[in-house]
Amino acid sequence: MAAVLRRNLQAPQAAVIDQLNAKIQGWTGYHRLVPSRDAFHRMDYLLYQKLRRWAQRRHPNKTPGWVARNYWHSDGARNWVFGVPHRAELLLHSAQHRKKHVKVVGTASPFDGNLAYWASRLGRHPELPPAKAQLLKRQGGRCAVCGLYFLSMRDVMELDHITPDILGGPDVDANHQLLHGHCHDRKTADDGSLRRMAATQRARVLRRPLRRQ
Asked: Do 37 and 94 contact (CB within 8 A), yes or no?
């Protein structure tokens, strides 16, 4: 990042931010699985110091206050946001998503036959459609209703719409979840979709023209 600032002493602020953001996303994405909170905060502090020197060198005849007002701004509850309002904003290392690495359970092995467990860890499995495997990983191998683990690939894993499509739920990944078969039946009975479906069918029957005898 220091090299980016040295190469772009006269470049527009938005262009510099784009280059720095790419490096911040790549670096934090690589290190997000290890304990990284302190390192990320340290990097934010070091980068801030370099940005202050970079901005001051661009305007050697301006006061530090003028430089701060022209290169940093407030955004809601956040102060000292380096960016161009409504155009570009520097990402914070500490604000990037950190994912805790989960160790393999006990004596588990890819060859132990516990296919549901490995599918939930890896997000893929030859016996599962890709969409179901990704949902299994997102849910941590658990049913979204009862919270119990899918113990094997023989368990009934049914794809459910969180908001039923008959009630206006979109057919997108964010509205999908995996349930046990019996949990799916109970959820469908409770969410009102059966009543709406029955009402829709009755309305269709009533709209049909009567046949003449």
From this structure: yes
Rounded distance between C-alpha atoms, residue 123 and residue 68, angstroms: 46
How many residues appear in the chain?
213
Q: Residues 150-181: pLDDT tens digits?
A: 776 666 678 888 888 777 788 888 888 988 88
Strand-pairing partners, residue 176, are 161
Q: Tell me, what's the pLDDT at 197? A: 67
| Domains contained in the chain, CATH given | 2-85 (no CATH), 115-205 (3.40.1800)
End-to-end CA distance of the chain: 85
Query: In this structure, what token pair is assigned to residue 213?
Result: 């005898």
Smallest CA-to-CA distance from 160 within 136, 182, 139, 176 is with 176
- Contact predicate 187/180, CB 8 Å: no
Q: Where is 160: in which H helix or E strand?
A: strand 157-161
Q: According to the model, what pLDDT value does residue 131 have? A: 81
Q: What burial letters (b/e) apply to 154-193, b meaning 16+ CB within 10 Å?
A: eeebbebbeebebeeeeeeeeebbbbbeebbeebbeebeb
Contacts of 62 (CB under 8 A, 6+ apart): 56
**Hey, what are 69's tokens?**
């007002």
d(CA 179, CA 197): 21
pLDDT computed for residue 153 by the predictor: 63
